[in-house]
Amino acid sequence: MKTVARNRLWLGLAIVLALSLLWEFLPAWSPDNRLGTLPTSSLGLTSHDLPLNETEAQVYRQARVVKRVYQVAGQRFLLIAIDGSRDRHAVHDPLYCFRGAGWNVVRRQPLRIPGGVASHLLLTRSGQTTEAVFWFSDGECRHVSVVRAWWQSAWRRLTFGCSGHDPVLVVLQPIARETVDWNVVLSRCPFLFEI
């Protein structure tokens, strides 16, 4: 009887080890490139891509990233969208990055958007003030919880991609010291809610 129990224990350990290795090395594949659907121009909309800086390239590694300046209805803003399906460590809490860059979060307000909610931030650093809007999207639902995004990503890996899309992090920021009317931007850019 002891031998059977010991063999089951070793078999269980082998299964856990195999699943751990599979979890670590098997990417949560994405059959489509959701960020590739973001338009570069259309009627009343122009944009240009920006290269990732050295730090961004190290942080995002193999993740799909779009870093693009858009102009619509006289409003210019920077879009950074990160699809971590090929590198789950790339999608992270944007508050961590803002604080790491020296910004203080003065105010954080929920902002209703199609399919959920975004977070509207007021940030200050060395006498400068700026703002940002961010959310996570799985293509159907939008939210601001990094923990929920991590769970969605983990569940996707456990189900081998059958549970839906990995969450994409979407961050919008004004260019330099410009101000942005986010209501205009969000109403004129429905493509932001299609990823």
List strands and helices in order, with pairings.
Blueprint: H1 2-25, E1 45-49, H2 54-60, E2 64-72, E3 75-83, H3 94-100, E4 104-113, E5 116-125, E6 128-137, E7 142-143, H4 146-158, E8 168-174, H5 182-188
Antiparallel strand pairs: 1-2, 2-3, 3-8, 4-5, 5-6, 6-7, 6-8
Quick gist of this model?
By secondary structure, this protein is of the alpha+beta class.
Key words describing this protein structure:
195 residues, alpha+beta, eight-stranded antiparallel β-sheet, 5 helices, 8 strands, 30% helix
How would you describe the overall organization of this protein?
By secondary structure, the chain is an alpha+beta fold. It is 30% helix and 32% strand. It is built from five helices and eight strands. The protein has helices at residues 2-25, 54-60, 94-100, 146-158, 182-188; strands at residues 45-49, 64-72, 75-83, 104-113, 116-125, 128-137, 142-143, 168-174. Strands 1, 2, 3, 4, 5, 6, 7 and 8 form an eight-stranded antiparallel sheet that branches. The longest helix is centred in the first third of the chain and has 24 residues, at 2-25. It is elongated. It starts with a helix and ends in a 7-residue tail after the last helix. The model has no long low-confidence stretch (mean pLDDT 85).
